[in-house]
């Protein structure tokens, strides 16, 4: 099975868990890469673990729920719908 099909199937089946895992992996990888680019003398794996946990536990679940709330804003005019979602996102969250 193609890896993208498997990912999409997992995302459809368990969206929150999949988003948490992906968010943690991307955040951890980004932090490790940032440490590499700044020529840190030693890789601080605790920093990477903290950053991964913060993204996976404290950022992803509320944003996941918030996007579901924004999807409920509907209007027949696509521009009004888009700007309504943007307004709500910028001024309510």
Q: TL;DR?
A:
With 93 residues, the protein is mostly helical.
What does this structure look like?
The protein has 93 residues and is mainly α. 82% of the residues lie in helices and 0% in strands. It contains four helices and no strands. The chain starts with a helix and ends with a helix. The mean pLDDT is 94. This is Mitochondrial inner membrane protein Mpv17. It is found in: Membrane. GO terms for molecular function: channel activity.
List keywords for this structure.
93 residues; mainly alpha; Mpv17_PMP22; channel activity
Overall strand count: 0
Structural class: mainly alpha
State the distance separating the first and last CA atoms.
39 Å
Strand fraction: under 5%
Give average pLDDT, whole number. 94
Computed over alpha carbons, the radius of gyration is 17 Å
Please write the string of helix (H) and strand (E) elements: HHHH
Low-pLDDT ranges: none
Q: Based on Cα principal axes, name the global outline.
A: extended
The helix tally amounts to 4
Helical percentage: over 70%
**What's the main sheet like?**
none
Protein name: Mitochondrial inner membrane protein Mpv17
GO molecular function, one term: channel activity
Organism: Caenorhabditis japonica
Family: Belongs to the peroxisomal membrane protein PXMP2/4 family.
Task: Chart the SSEs and their pairings.
Elements: H1 3-13, H2 15-37, H3 45-71, H4 78-92
Helix pairs in contact: 1-2, 2-3
Organism: Caenorhabditis japonica
Main location: membrane
Keywords: Membrane, Transmembrane, Transmembrane helix
